[in-house]
Amino acid sequence: MITISLCLIVKNEEKTLRSCLSSVAKAVDEIIIVDTGSTDQTKSIASSFTDHIYDFKWIDDFSAARNFAFRQATKDYILWLDADDILKEEDCNKLITLKADLEPSVDSVTMFYNYAFDEFGTPTFRFKRNRLVKRVNQFKWIGAIHEYLEVSGNIVDSDITVTHCRIHTKSDRNLKIFQNRLLRGETFTPRDLYYFANELKDHNKYAKAIIYYNKFLANGKGWVEDEISSCSNLADCYHQLGNSEMELQSVFRSFQYDSPRAEFCCRLGYYFLTRKQYEPAVFWYKLASELQVPTHNLGFSNPKFSTWLPHLQLCVCYDHLGQHANAYKHNEIARTYRPKDRNILHNKKYLESVLHISDSSEAAE
Prior knowledge:
Blueprint: E1 4-10, H1 17-24, E2 30-35, H2 42-47, E3 53-55, H3 62-72, E4 77-80, E5 85-86, H4 89-101, E6 108-117, E7 123-134, E8 140-142, E9 148-150, E10 155-164, H5 173-183, H6 190-202, H7 206-219, H8 224-240, H9 244-253, H10 262-274, H11 278-290, H12 308-320, H13 324-337, H14 342-355, H15 359-364
Helix pairs in contact: 6-7, 6-8, 7-8, 8-9, 10-11, 10-12, 11-12, 12-13, 13-14
């Protein structure tokens, strides 16, 4: 059986750290905590789980802190988390099983990351990350901000999910780090350009974000998933600025990088729906409903665009077209994903009255 070191970098995480460590402690053999300047009870909480607590002077470089944490690990494999992440019990048990069965020839194990959720607790932002890596390979973190772990070799995909439990409000910390790097005259990598644009967009600086997304795409050396995401974010920026023509162009621009993704099909469906062009809207929403969420890469995904959302919008389109039976069918499909959604339940009641469907007759079917 392999052994695992858990590595975290922390600062002022007293509200989340206990939950994080409690959720995974039984699955790991060593816990490494690297503190970058806490002024609350973070280190005291950490000390109830481990004696391996180290101080690291913060230098506006996440990779430097994470690489320092990795260097303190002594076990066969390193698992990394953030202090506001947890493993649910079923995922912790899966990790214990993986630990018992993992072949020593494996260099890295990917896990899903559920980063954001809707009001029903369904993930709305999900992707994979290399989470468990062989220590002797000395894989390094790259990038001062929005860092990534550069791995190679025998990589295994697992079905384990890490769950993000964010409680912090939006901060301008990352934006300031990027801005300070610009002031120092640093050259941005393609990845830097992409994430700087994301920070600008998140802080409602849409016009400037557009400039940096275009710089990133013009470079042509970025990860394809980031290029596709940039097209989506460009569409968001142009939408916020009221430029529907460029919003539409940004959607079609994504087709240069891959076959149409469900998200972009839904965007096109919405474009036509808002213009009361229901037939082309139906075409794009139907295509979205037939596409699968990509699972073969580490790209970001929002499952709603290929599950309940296109069916809900098809319900709207078919209702406008007078095809109420089709509207009802797609609303029912949407309801399988969101059985308590008020809009879907409202549609159900309305369409049942139009189609003269009673609960008893529906049950009989």
